[in-house]
Write a structure and sequence with these properties.
Length: 448
């Protein structure tokens, strides 16, 4: 139900609004609470950004949830699991080359193209005859999906008001996480649905019919259009890449280091968790699905709660707390009794998703419009590289300790480095306009 703005909400929007003359409405979304006060244009951008992340999360969740079934179906050796997952993660590195085009040709155009790529490649994964084909299709699917998610986030950040930016990014993260819930729901039928895990991947083709008309309603970002008019945009895709490394190198290094260390220490923990539940604690696929749907629904609220708190208390403090709590809870999960797993996992998911919200907000806030999408993909490259190396290290550690669960616990030492870099190195961005946080320095315009 839509509601008019309260006095408090009007003060949140304040003078930072891009479109102060347009009417604004909030909507109650059940357990997710109320949305920020959006204009009609902002609502359109928000809904499209949600669909972009929803189906990407469905695909990513399937790989983790059905890992045991995929392993058996493609006859993958236990010792090769870490390497396989690592190679698939490397697909996000290709995102960097795709996403930089959004800073040259526009956000909207790239978003329209990437939806075709990742949906079709995900569906084709169902036909994989062997491990090599499956990994190849998933690598390229990750590249297109990663690009779509980054550009959707950038458009949203560029359109919403400064006072509710953290809240909006957090709500986006929570709503797109429902894609995990959908994957968990259908995973419960993995032993019933035709062709098992292959049938689950084939379902990824269905959203293509739904998303295409929705994507055509997407407007181009106001900030991109304004920057293009003032600075002029050519057709050289290297312009935003060069500007990224030239204008704010210190910020880039800190942002990438946190993403690298966080994923290096935590990616394996999330990827192996369904396997851990089934093998170490005797969970059935249906039990795993129930936990992901019920417990996950509570855990993902960390996106919204911490996102809103970061608008008031600050990104840096909230992000540092979340980045420290998540690895400590991961150790608890992989060394706890069956009774303690559920509360430990819900809390870990709360802080993990919340830290992702903070980093996502920072990735869009710390860099100018001329290379904001490229910066988001650089963050993805750092996270992908860290996660891939972490999965490779997990395989190495497994060969020594003969336990995936112990290997995952050892890796959290890298994860625990991230909060200190954020707290002592990151600037505060909450409530500030993007142009004040990251003004153009002219590097992009100087690159021919």
């Amino acid at each position: 139900m839509k509601e008019p703005l309260s006095n408090a909400e009007q003060s949140i929007v304040g003078e930072s609004s891009i479109h102060t003359e347009e009417p604004r409405r909030s909507i109650h979304l059940g357990m997710f609470g109320k949305t920020p006060p959006f204009t009609r244009r902002q609502w359109r951008v928000f809904l499209i950004a949600c669909t972009a992340g929803f189906f990407d999360n469905y695909d990513r969740a399937l790989l983790s949830l059905a890992l045991e079934q995929i392993q058996k179906g493609l006859r993958i050796a236990e010792s090769e699991l870490g390497a396989m997952l690592s190679f698939i993660r490397f697909g996000y590195i290709l995102t960097f080359f795709l996403t930089s085009l959004a800073d040259v040709f526009g956000r909207r155009r790239l978003l329209l193209y990437t939806i075709f790529g990742y949906t079709i490649l995900t569906g084709l994964s169902a036909l994989s005859p062997d491990e090599r084909t499956f990994v190849t299709l998933q690598i390229f699917a990750r590249a297109f999906a990663g690009a779509e998610g980054i550009v959707a986030l950038v458009i949203l950040v560029e359109e919403v008001d400064a006072g509710v930016r953290g809240w909006t990014v957090g709500l986006l993260g929570a709503l797109t996480s429902v894609g995990y819930g959908l994957a968990a729901g259908v995973f419960a039928l993995v032993n019933v649905i035709p062709y098992g895990w292959r049938g689950l991947y084939a379902l990824a083709l269905i959203p293509l019919v739904i998303i295409i008309p929705l994507r055509r309603a997407l407007p181009e970002s106001h900030r991109f259009e304004d920057e293009a008019r003032s600075a002029g945009h050519g057709s050289n895709p290297l312009k935003p890449v060069i500007a990224l490394f030239r204008e704010y190198p210190g910020r880039l290094a800190m942002l990438m280091s946190v993403a690298f260390l966080g994923n290096m220490g935590g990616n394996a923990a999330g990827m192996f968790f369904p396997k851990y539940l089934q093998e170490a604690h005797g969970y059935s696929p249906a039990n795993v699905s129930v936990l992901y749907i019920m417990g996950g629904g509570i855990g993902i609220l960390g996106n919204i709660i911490v996102g809103r708190m970061s608008d008031r208390i600050g990104r840096r403090a909230m992000g540092s707390i979340c980045f420290l709590a998540a690895p400590l809870l991961t150790i608890w999960i992989y060394h706890s009794s069956s009774a303690a797993i559920i509360p430990a996992w819900i809390l870990e998911l709360f802080f993990d998703t919340a830290s992702g919200t903070i980093v996502s907000a920072y990735s869009a806030e710390l860099f100018p419009t001329s290379h904001r999408s490229t910066a988001g993909s650089a963050l993805g490259v750092a996270g992908t590289t860290g996660g891939a190396i972490g999965l490779l290290l997990e395989g190495v550690l497994f060969s020594y300790c003969h336990s995936h669960w112990s290997a995952i616990s050892y890796l959290t030492v890298f994860w625990m480095m991230a909060p200190f870099i954020m707290y002592f190195g990151y600037p505060e961005t909450a409530g500030q306009e993007l142009e004040d946080i990251s003004p153009e320095k002219g590097a992009a315009a100087d690159v021919q």
